[in-house]
Amino acid sequence: MLTAIGVWPCDTMSRMRSTIVIPARLASTRLPRKLLLAETGKSLIQHTYEAASKATKPMGLLVAVDCEEIATVVRSFGGHAELTSPDCASGTDRIAEIAAKMPNVDIFVNVQGDEPEISATATDLAVELLENDPTAVMSTLATPIRDRHKLNDPACVKVVFDHRQRAIYFSRATIPYARTWDDELLTSEPAAYHQHIGLYAYRRDFLLQLASLPRAPIEQIESLEQLRVLHHGYRLLVGIIDEPTIGIDTPEDYAAFVKRRARE
Description:
alpha/beta, Spore Coat Polysaccharide Biosynthesis Protein SpsA, Chain A, 2 domains, two-stranded antiparallel ribbon, 9 helices, 9 strands, globular
């Protein structure tokens, strides 16, 4: 069960200590001020916070905000908010700023603020991967792709990994590329194609040095930050979940989310 930040029950001191940080900034290009949208009766950031709080492995949860407006909303529903620099270039940098102040945490989990339907199982899996493999510095998630339109969509990031679940490459292109296409590739077991899910867990020491690593050429071409990790030779594990999480990026995404909540 999640406890107050920085307070660790005595019977958990022997296990790796992890906490969830939700990076949250007010500006958003395709859906302005989306984290504060509240057509369901709750803000989007509250939905994400409540979903993240269901995870059982992390012992803390907070929102790393870029302004007082979001902090006020988070605190209004009883959440823990910490102000970070508005100049942070990415969510990873925002979490690293928090990590620098929390030396007693081993693993930080990055849950995106626009992922209100993230499952507790997914969050716990990301932590478990690092607990079980001391050679890995990061973990993330993926889910099978069963739709060819999604497979060919550059907005859907694909990932391939080896038999030990170590990431080999992430791409907006279709990977692996089928020299001869067969529709059965979309129904095969195990799945031939996987969509990357943007939830990450980092070991604290690595997180603090990640921002200082030079950007990789492949990272700049694909515009995928995780490729920096692979370029510099670090091990990044990929956990498989059966259901994709649905991020809220557009007005249409949000409208669909509101409809799903209305049916619950």
